[in-house]
Amino acid sequence: MKHGFMQALVRPWSPAVAAVCFALAGCSGYEPINPQAILYDDLVERVGPERARTIAVPFEINDEIRAALRGRAMPIGREKTRTSAILDFVFESLDLQYSLSPTRDAIGTYQARSGNCLSFVNLFVGMAREVHLNPFYVEVTDFQRWNYRDGVVVSQGHIVAGMSVDGNLSTFDFLPYQAKTYRDFEPIDDLTAIAHYYNNIGAEALLDDDLEKALDALTLAVDLDPDFNKALNNLGVYYLRTGRAGDAVSLFREALARDPADVALMTNLARALQTRGEVQEASELLAQLDEVGQTSPFFFIYRAEMALGDGDTAKALEYMREALRRDSEVPEVHVGLVKVYLALGEMGKARHHLERALVLDATNQEARQFAVMLQAAGPEN
C-alpha cells in the first residue's frame, strides 16, 4: 500500500501547537518552514504534480506510530536522551528483525516488525524527526550490494542514518552482520533517498521477475535523480531482460561516462555487447574488470558465478575464497561457497557454509532454497 505525500501535508495540528504558531505569526509575521512542503515542491519539479501525489515518501509515519512514540520519546530535552529513546523503542520494544527484502517504508517496517537496512533507516528518520531530531540519509559508498542473475548485475546501495547528537556527528547502521569498517560516506538529501527507495523496489522486482513493477520503480528513481548510476544500471538490466540490448548499451555508456570504474556498469555493458555480437569490445571490458583489483566481496561473488556458468569450478572456488577473505560476515559469500562446493560434490563443506549463511541472515531466499534442497537430499553419507 502506498502512502501518498499529500497525506502528510494535511496532517492536523493540535490546538496547542496551532495557538503557539498563530501567536508567533501575529507578533512577527513569522511563518515556520515546512520541510514537507519543500520536498513536495521538489518532487513536483522533477516529475510533475500528478505523479508527485502518488509517490510514497518512505520516512512518512502515521498516527499509530506517533501515538506509540508518546511517553517514550518527547520532543524536548537532550538530543542524546531522545536518540536513545528512539533506538530503545525500535530495537527493544518493537523487536524489529532484519530481513534482506522487501524494502519497506517507515509505516510498512513498523507494521511488519522487519526490514532491511533502508527500511530501518526510513523508520528511524521518521520517528526521530517527529521528536525534533535532525537525522538524514547517508550512503556508504565503499560497501555496495550486488546480485548476479542471468549474466547481469543488479545493484543496490547501503544506506545508514546520520545525525548530529549534542554536537557530535553519529551514524546508525542497521545491517546486523556487517563489520563496521566503512571508510567512505556520502550524505544524501531526501529526494535522493526516495530515489534509493524506488531503486531498491525496482531491483527486488527484477530479481522476482516482476518486470512491469521494475520498470515503474526504476523509471521513477531515474526521474528523481538522473545521475543515480545504480538506478541507471538496473534500468539497463531491465532493457536487457526485455530484448532492448541497444537501449541498454546506450544507458550503460551514459552512466559510465560519469564513473568509468563502476564495476556493475562495466559488467553489464560487457554482457549487452556480447548480446549484440560485439565480442571484441566485451572481452576488453572483462579484461579491464580483472585488472581493477576490486575490494568488494560482491565482485568476487559475481566472478565466481560467471566461472560456474562456464564450468570452471576451480576458478569459481578461487574467486569465492577471495570473497571470503574480503568479508566473512556477508551471507551471500557463504551462499556462493555453497554453490561452488555443491558443484564440486563436497556436501559437508556446502552444508557448513549454508549453516553459516542462515546464521547471518535467516531470511536469505537462496540460502533457504538450498536448505530445502539439502534436506531433501538426506543426511550426508
What does this protein look like?
The chain has 4 domains: 55 residues, no CATH class; 131 residues, Roll (C8orf32 fold); 79 residues, Alpha Horseshoe (Serine Threonine Protein Phosphatase 5, Tetratricopeptide repeat); 88 residues, Serine Threonine Protein Phosphatase 5, Tetratricopeptide repeat, CATH 1.25.40.10. 41% of the residues are buried. The chain is globular and about 60 Å long. Helix content is 61%, strand content 11%. The N terminus is likely disordered. The strands form 2 sheets. The protein has a 4-stranded antiparallel sheet with strand order 5-4-3-6, sandwiched between helices. A two-stranded parallel sheet has the order 1-2. It has 381 residues and is an alpha+beta fold.
